[in-house]
Amino acid sequence: MATSKDVFVWIGRNGKRVGVSIVGFVLIIAGLAMLVLPGPGVLVIIAGLAVLATEYAWAERALDNAKKKAKSAAGKARQRVKRRRAN
Question: Which residue of 19, 43, 44, 87 has the fewest C-beta atoms within 10 A of its own C-beta?
Answer without folding.
Answer: 87
